[in-house]
Design goal:
- The chain has about 500 residues and is an alpha/beta fold.
- The chain folds into 4 domains: about 140 residues, Response regulator (Rossmann fold), CATH 3.40.50; about 110 residues, 2-Layer Sandwich (Beta-Lactamase), CATH 3.30.450; about 90 residues; about 130 residues, Histidine kinase-like ATPase, C-terminal domain (Heat Shock Protein 90, 2-Layer Sandwich).
- It is about 50% helix and about 20% strand.
- The relative contact order is 0.05.
- Keywords: Coiled coil, Kinase, Phosphoprotein, Transferase, Two-component regulatory system.
């Protein structure tokens, strides 16, 4: 089997020591060592540049330079990082060995008087070369990682776990905030100082909690650029662990989401404006209903009542004259009465007068009674004393009544229920209204259907007053509606 070849440059002025090293390498059964020898530092530097050895075995004491000076010149030549160096020192030179390691030597061996270091020499060279390969691989991986990271359109960073404000690395993309990576890393407080004041407190607390606990993090907050621009970022980080599962550091990414946030804010503003417009249209519609109902009551209702009165007078006069009343008059009187009832029903559908005259709580109980009378659905209504004592303004009263009206209409039309219960309560300045039936249960797809205008209308009515409406259905067990309406403290008339 072919043994691997290892080219070693020996920089040693002592001929005997060089011979001893040659014998030690020749006796190694695992590798073929090719030796290049230099008896001075200058010659060794020339050989390092020209012969391209795999490693250098360097004696500290040389006739022209010291081993430390050799390391310094080798580093200046650009070969210090590429060629691993093992320093040979005397038995009393621990300080020299430490300094040599600090200046770039990869390892060292102590030359003892008995020559035992020669037995360890091949193994030490193999270990150093293995570490060199690992180092080269690590640097290649790091170079690829940095190249990849620094090409993406986001700021990447590595943060220490035990010091929440300390960053170990940040990518050059930090320039989008007007800072260099060196500036950002040199000042641990710079990140927090550039956070928007309205968010700084909770963001700092969340970052510290995540890094101290070694837990994943996902935040959205604003950072102020050096030129004063306000940018939105999504800060997302994960814990990097070693093979044993121990946490090493946090690796994160800051993604500029300013345009998304601006679009989101514009969309939210548009939705708010649409909701205000819809609420305004609802108010106009309610006023128009009230006006039409009033006109029907005053005009058509009055006419029908007058017609019935004239018919009644004609019938009474005929009876007084002793002649039988015209049968058509009795039919006309009955038709007039039916027309009056129809007008009353239309007026009630448009705008029940009880809502304006007696208030929303009486209107809800009255409407539940109307549903029970018309459909046979058993309606149980209960308004707690705390809720009954609450005086809602006309707009909220109308909203509440219309939601109950739509919900009970849906129960009659779709639920196939026999009983429905309506409860109103006031808890912690939140008005709670629930409607629960024992029907077949609403279909989930209908809840998700954006064309269910009745359900959509209930949601929009409640949202206009910051209410929360939740509808749930259980097949075979019925449907429940829960409305939670927050009330402004000390101002319930809005």
């Amino acid at each position: 089997m072919n043994k691997p070849r290892v080219k070693v440059l020996i920089v040693e002025d002592d001929v005997v020591d060089r011979m001893a090293c040659r014998r030690a390498f020749a006796a190694d059964p695992d590798s073929n060592f090719e030796l290049i020898e230099a008896d001075s530092g200058q010659q060794g530097l020339l050989q390092a540049r020209g012969a391209a050895p795999d490693c250098i075995l360097l004696d500290y004491h040389l006739p022209d330079v010291t081993g430390l000076e050799f390391l310094a010149r080798l580093s200046v030549d650009g070969g210090g990082a590429a060629i691993p160096v093992m320093m040979l020192t005397g038995a009393d030179s621990a300080t020299v060995a430490a300094e040599a390691m600090r200046r770039g030597a990869r390892d060292y061996l102590v030359k003892d008087v008995d020559g035992r270091y020669l037995d360890m020499l091949p193994t030490a060279i193999h270990r150093m070369l293995r570490e060199q390969r690992l180092l080269v691989d690590k640097r290649q991986v790091e170079a690829k990682f940095r190249t990849l990271v620094e090409q993406i359109q986001a700021i990447t960073y590595i943060a220490a776990l035990d010091a929440p404000q300390t960053l170990l690395y940040i990518s050059p993309q930090i320039q989008m905030l007007g800072y260099t990576a060196a500036e950002w890393l040199s000042d641990p407080k710079l990140h927090a100082s550039r956070m928007h004041p309205a968010e700084r407190g909770w963001v700092q607390a969340a970052i510290e909690e995540s890094r101290m606990a070694g837990a994943a993090m996902r935040l959205e907050y604003r950072l102020m650029a050096r030129n004063g621009d306000e940018l939105w970022f999504r800060d997302q980080a994960e814990v990097v662990r070693d093979e044993a599962g121990e946490p090493l550091f946090m690796q994160g990414i800051l993604v500029d989401i300013t345009q998304n946030k601006l679009a989101e804010q514009a969309l939210q503003q548009s939705q708010d404006e649409l909701r205000r417009l819809a609420a305004h249209q609802e108010n106009i519609k309610e006023h128009e209903r009230k006006r039409i109902a009033q006109e029907i009551h005053d005009e058509l209702g009055g006419l029908l009542t007058g017609i019935k009165a004239y018919i009644s007078v004609a019938m009474e006069r005929a009876a007084a004259a002793g002649s039988p009343a015209e049968p058509l008059l009795a039919d006309a009187s009955a038709l007039a009465q039916d027309a009056i009832q129809t007008v009353r029903r239309v007026i009630t559908d448009l705008r029940p007068s009880v809502l304006d005259q007696l208030g929303v709580w009486a209107a809800l109980e009255w409407y539940a009674g109307q549903i029970e009378q018309r459909s046979g659905l058993h309606c149980i209504s209960h308004v707690t004393p705390a809720a009954a004592a609450l005086e809602l303004g006309p707009e909220r009263s109308t909203m509440l009544f219309r939601i109950v009206q739509e919900a009970l209409t849906n129960v009659v039309r779709h639920a196939e229920a026999s009983t429905v219960q309506l409860d109103v309560d006031l808890r912690d300045n939140i008005l709670q209204l629930s409607i629960i039936d024992d029907g077949k249960g609403i279909d989930t797809e209908r809840l998700l259907n954006r064309e269910s205008w009745g359900i959509l209308g209930m949601h929009e009515r409640s949202r206009h007053f910051a209410g929360e409406l939740k509808i749930t259905g259980t097949p075979g067990q019925g449907t429940s509606l829960l409305l939670r309406l927050p009330l402004e403290s000390g101002n319930n008339e809005q």
